[in-house]
Structures are given as structure tokens and as C-alpha cells.
Amino acid sequence: MMLPKNERLKLGTETSNLALKLAVSLATFALLIILSTITLAQNKTEQKNIALRYLTRLPEAKAYFSSPPEGSAFAGNQNYLLEKILPRILRDLGLNWEPDPRLANFCRWLNELLQDLNMPDSIAIKEAAAWLGLPEPYPHFLIKSERIDVRLASRLKAQLASLKDLSNYTHYGALADGNPTGSIVIIIAFSQRHVFLSPVPRLLAEPGQLEFKLSVYPGYSEWEIIHKLPDGKTEPATVEGEKLSIYPAKVKLNLSEPGKHQVEIVANQKKKGPQVLADFPLFVGTGGSTFSGGAINIIDSREPPASKVQKRLYELINEERKKAGLEPLARDLRLEEIARSHCRDMVQNNFVGHVSPTTGGPAERLKAAGIEARYFGENVCQGYHSAEDLHRGLMESPGHRLNIINSRFTHVGIGVETRDSDNDKAFLVTELFIKEGPPEIEASETEIIQKINDIRKTRGQPLLEESEELKYLAQRAVDHFSQKESFEPVEVQTFLLKAASEGNFKFERVNAVLVIAVEAEAVINKLSQAEINQTAVGLGIRVISSGSKKGQLLAILVF
Fold it and tell me: What is the 3-state secondary structure (H, E, C) of 293-336?
């Protein structure tokens, strides 16, 4: 049925008006999006500027020191309160924390941000620690608004006693600041410093070589240095001396490239597995520190659910791999379940680490799930605010970054759980990477020695030469020890001396370096860091067939 002409004109006019209104609405909506984007960008820049502005009010350290400098570890206009009660609280809790004025300055920085209703993101916290000369990563902190009365000490003691792993912390600084309402803000910062460093300069005017001394505290072993260059590549450091806790070794870093270098020191702790003991930047030829961290407004921030964080982390990992020219990782639901279960385990058993008191390490978890991995790696972290903040923290760590952009991995599973506390909600994250298939040795002993020599050549070190007798001893040793559930280094020394005697080899002394690693490249990096004071060597390498390290590579270099 056809409408009369006047009705058709009326409908056409209404349609035109509707189209015009719709066009205006869409234009307005587009304008709002543009304005919103501009505002968000401005806010992000402003938040970064706030964190930096408050930080640069504090004295910049010229070097990283393990020993605290002189000065008070208490700050704020009510600092006398904490000077009285905090040392006594720590003694009552059986804690031997050492006061460090740098951590008091860290509290000052936090307090200034809080007064503007801001909290630093993870990168800003790391950059603040570096600015103050703290070698350890991520100081932790407790923030409380309190009233001054006779029960203040008992409330503070109860709050500290509720925190996890207090005995692992070694240093502290604190602030107490009063306000017109009569209450006080108390901030206590505490950190884990389990490494000795001779002073390491933060800023170097010219490229060159840097030397410093390093040892790790008792309870840690198998330490290694991961040196990330300004272009994102990693390079092993030269280490001279035995890696024993009580004897500092000399470390040499090649800083020939100008820009920001990142140094990470990782050591193995028997109950928790690999732990990051130090993580700090070195600025070469930049004229000063560079910053990328910022602050998050407490009022505006809305923490996303764990499922959204997990989804975004998958995207961020593959975005990172795309930038590096690598294939994306496939999401693996089996790995995801392992990762999620490990996160739940960390929440329930109140720890953050690779080794669980109930399920062991990632190798044991993969084995229990019936997954055979040719290569595997695992990232574990705790963080706040967003997936982006968590991911940036992982990418700033050379060791975690290597897992994300490892060309050998093909699959990944990510687990995210939340842990609530009095002050905030923390995300616990596990990223589990693998390439499926039976373990394999990618290179022969001779090829590995050639690659070690390539590294030694760049450092001006004498090249290694294979000795048939030493190679025989090394291969006998790896054949034997790769089948054992566990062993001590002294057993290898005894075995080598006995094998040398049986073979009528006339060696006055036999030395050995042991390396256990997931892949041949890691074996090369670790052996290239070892102090080898003879040029004649023998190398044996095998896949470990039993025990908690099953599937990893055991390398023994004899000289």
C-alpha cells in the first residue's frame, strides 16, 4: 500500500531529521572519545611526572651499596615514636633487621605521593629503589593510618606479625607523619638483601668495562648474573673466583654500548628455588637516570578481575614476541591449569616462588600432569593494579624477559589468582612456557666449547683446548651422575680422582665446574662465567634421567 504524497514528505522530513540527529550524536560521541583519549594521555603523563617530581627531591645515590650509609632510618614529624617502639617490636618478633636510611627516604617518597592520593606502579617502585642506591628489587612496605595511644605498639606488632616470610627480610626504614586531625600515617619499608656488593657506580660517563665484587649470603647457591644490554639482548658476565658465599668473586661487565643496562643476580634457594637477589640499572653515557614508571590515582583506580588480567597477559606476551619477530605462543589449557593450581597453592600456603612445599618445582608439576617438555620456563610474580603493570615488571627483569621472548617456546599457560589483604588486593601470576617433546642436547661437547671460546675471545681470555683424557673423565662423570636422584659437588671431585687413578692419568689436581640447565645456551652462558685457569679441558653433557631435575642438562667441565 502506498502512502499519500504529504505523508511521504512528512516521513522523509522526519527521516532526514533523524539522520541529522544521529550524525550529530555520532560526531559528539567521536569528539568525546577523542577528548577522553587526550585526557587519559595527559593523566598518564601527569602521573609519571608526579612520581618523578617527588623522587628527584630526594638525594640521588652515586652507587649501589650493600651496607647502609650513615644517617637515621626514621623520617617524618613524629619519627621519635617509631624510634622508641619499632626496634623493640622487631626484637619481640625475633627479627634482626638492620636500619637503612635509604628505606626511610623511600618512605618519604611514598608519603608525598599518598598526600596527593597516588600510589606508585611497580616500575616506579623499582626506579625509586635504584635512585636511592638499593641493589635489591622492590622494597615492600606497610602503610597504616593510626591514632596515638598506649596500644599503638601492640597494634603495629600484630600487623607486622601477620605478614608473610618476615625472617627473609634484612633491612628496614620507617616514617611517622602527623596531620591536623590528630592521627598519624605510619609507613614501614623493608627489603631482602642477601647479596654482598662492593660499590657499583650507577652512572658511567663513558662506555667501558666495570668491575665489582660479589658474594651471596649463606643459604643461596648457584648464583648467576644476567646482563641485559640497551638493545634488549643479554650477555654473560665474566666471573673470577669461586662462587662461594664467604669469598667474594670479581665480576667484569662489558658496558661498551651507551644506554641503560640492567643487571640481575639470581641464586638458588633450597626451599624456594631461583630467587632474584639484585636487579638494578646502570646508565652509560646517558648523562643521568631515565624513568618510565608512574603513579596510579587511588580514587580513580579500579582493579580488574583476575580473568581479565589473565586474558590481557596472553595478549601482551604475544605482542612482545611480535615486536621481537617471533611466532606467537599457543594458549595451552593443560599448562593453564598447572599455572592456576600453582597460583592457588601460593595463596593458600602464603608464599611466592617457583618451588612449592606441596608440588615441588615446575619440572615436577609438568611430570605430574603427564606433559613431556623438551624445554620449559616459568615466570612467577606478585603485583597490583593491572596486567600492564605486571607485564612491565616482568619485562624489566632480564631473566623473566628471556622466557617471554624465548624463540624455542611454542606454548604457554597463564594462571592468575588474587590475594586480599587489609590494604589492597594483590595478583599472583604464573606463566608456564614449554616446547613439547623429549629432552635433547642441541650441540655436541666440541660445539659448546667452540661457543665458549667465541665469548672468551671477545674478552681477550685464552682459548680452551679439548684434552682427550679430560674429556674421558668428564664423560664418565656425567654418565654416572646424570642417573642419580641427587648428589653433592664433593662426590663429583671424589669420582674424578678415582677415575683418573683407574685410568693411570698423571694429574696433580683435577678441577671441575658443574652446570645444570634447561638448554645448551644456558650451559654455555654459565660455563663462560666460570673461572677456568687452565686451557686444557674436557666436557661431558647428558640429559638427567631421574630426580627432581629430570629432563634438564647436566654438564661437567674438567680441567
Answer: CCEEECCCCCCCCHHHHHHHHHHHHHHHHHHCCCCCCEECHHHH
